[in-house]
Design a protein that fits this description.
The structure is a single chain. The protein has 65 residues and is α+β, with helices and mostly antiparallel strands. The chain has one domain (15-64). The chain contains 1 helix and 4 strands. The protein has one helix at 37-64, and strands at 15-16, 23-24, 29-30, 35-36. The strands form 2 sheets. It has a two-stranded antiparallel ribbon. A two-stranded antiparallel sheet has the order 3-4. A hairpin with a 6-residue loop joins β1 and β2. The longest helix is centred in the C-terminal third of the chain and has 28 residues, at 37-64. The radius of gyration is 18 Å and the shape is rod-shaped.
Length: 65
């Protein structure tokens, strides 16, 4: 029986994270995106930061108009 590298439990099925290669169970990641919980969190944080930068750029552009 395979073992989840995130929670350590023996599970029916594991999936391989496309970012870090960790084998995770359905409870410890996004099976559709093939991202373990940690890589998915990092991806979401990067998206949040990118949005903040884009918002700052729009503010600056509006101020200079």
């Amino acid at each position: 029986m395979p073992k989840c590298e995130i929670c350590g439990k023996n599970v029916k099925e594991v999936f391989k994270c496309k970012e870090c290669g960790a084998k995770f169970c359905k409870n410890d990641g996004n099976v559709d995106a093939l991202l373990c919980r940690y890589c998915e969190e990092e991806m979401q944080e990067m998206i949040r930061e990118e949005r903040e930068v884009m918002d700052d750029i729009q503010e600056i552009e509006q101020e200079t108009d």
